[in-house]
Amino acid sequence: xxxxxxxxxxxxxxxxxADQWMNIRLLxxxxxxxxxxxxxxxxxxxxxxxxxxxxxxLIGVQVxxxxxxxxxxxxxxxxxxxxxxxxxxLEWQDEHWSNLxxxxx
Length: 105
Known about the structure:
The chain is an all-alpha fold. Helices cover about 80% and strands about 0% of the residues. It contains five helices and no strands.
């Protein structure tokens, strides 16, 4: 099967690529900094963080960040835009049917 190079596929690719780059530029550095900071704090004063169970606060902040992050991201588009990008009669299917008809004839 050949990937489509039509306008709809190009728009979808651009949206997915932008979302991935935002994750690489925002999420990954934030997670590295947060993990390093948490490790530093626990290493500096383990009695406070481990014995008194304050490490659960650090875990809770990390979980909350993962739950909130998807809502902070720039949306890929409106529902209508996304439906246009996933409509079953897009150009790749048109190309597929054209190729299939050519093989039959």
